[in-house]
Amino acid sequence: MSDKGAVLLTGATGGFGGEFARVLEQEGYRLLLHGRDHVRMQLTLDMLKNPKSHRVFIHELSARKGVEELLAGIADENLVGLVNNAGYGVWGGFEKKEGVAQIDVMRTDLIAPTTLSHALLPKLKRAQGFIINVSSLAGEAPLPYMSTYAAAKAGLTFWSEALRFELRGKVRVVTLAPGPSPTGFRRISGAPVGKGSFFSTPIPLIIATAIACLHQGGGYCVPGWRHRLLWLIIKLTPRSCLLAMMARYLK
Ligand SMILES: NC(=O)c1ccc[n+]([C@@H]2O[C@H](COP(=O)([O-])OP(=O)(O)OC[C@H]3O[C@@H](n4cnc5c(N)ncnc54)[C@H](OP(=O)(O)O)[C@@H]3O)[C@@H](O)[C@H]2O)c1
Description:
Layout: E1 6-9, H1 15-26, E2 30-35, H2 38-47, E3 55-58, H3 64-73, E4 79-84, H4 99-126, E5 130-134, H5 147-166, E6 172-176, H6 185-189, H7 203-215, E7 219-221, H8 224-236, H9 239-250
Parallel strand pairs: 1-2, 1-4, 2-3, 4-5, 5-6, 6-7
Helix pairs in contact: 1-7, 4-5
């Protein structure tokens, strides 16, 4: 197995995370796999060719303590890459859901990736490495009934794009913005799962698009024609119509 260096992958126990792990291992990286759920982590390890060459870290990222413990755990590693993939949303009206749960979404989806990136940048710069931020098309439009998720992802996309500009020639930055995808995301957010969306795009295609974008030097990428069509609809629809459409879809 070639060792191109270590990559920290957060949310390695999820749908996108498992596929990122598989592809990054294939690319020759040693993985520092983060998640919370031991059983789901084992499923990810079972998919890998050389599970023993990777390390596992179990931490809650909505809490500052969890982020600090993760950073302390990987302090001895010379990182070449960081994939900020862990994230979730809370479905339901803002006033009806517990405030802490709503704020934890923003801590996990926005504060944790920015904190990890800031702390790890000196190493990533030394290695002329990369950061992949898994944002969402939810960051392109306000989402009634998932308002804090959209707010966190809008923040993540804007920060990630600005960072790419600041770090040109030093660290490659990819902002991945998928739309609906067949992972555990919707069920975990508490949203009705339903029949699935016309825009749903296969997980391998999404992760392959992010890796291709990384090979091209970084950038903002929307994977697959269905997600690109959704992106176009979001961009061309007046805000008031968009709000009504999104509310109908999510209520
Ligand atoms: N699926 C979609 O439709 C979609 C679309 C656009 C963007 N995304 C984004 O894609 C990323 C990956 O999600 P997914 O679709 O693969 O969903 P998923 O299957 O639910 O996976 C989410 C991952 O994030 C981890 N995670 C969630 N909350 C966490 C917390 N508070 N602290 C630490 N880890 C936490 C989970 O860990 P445990 O399983 O160990 O708890 C899991 O590994 C997320 O950032 C999500 O916002 C998803």
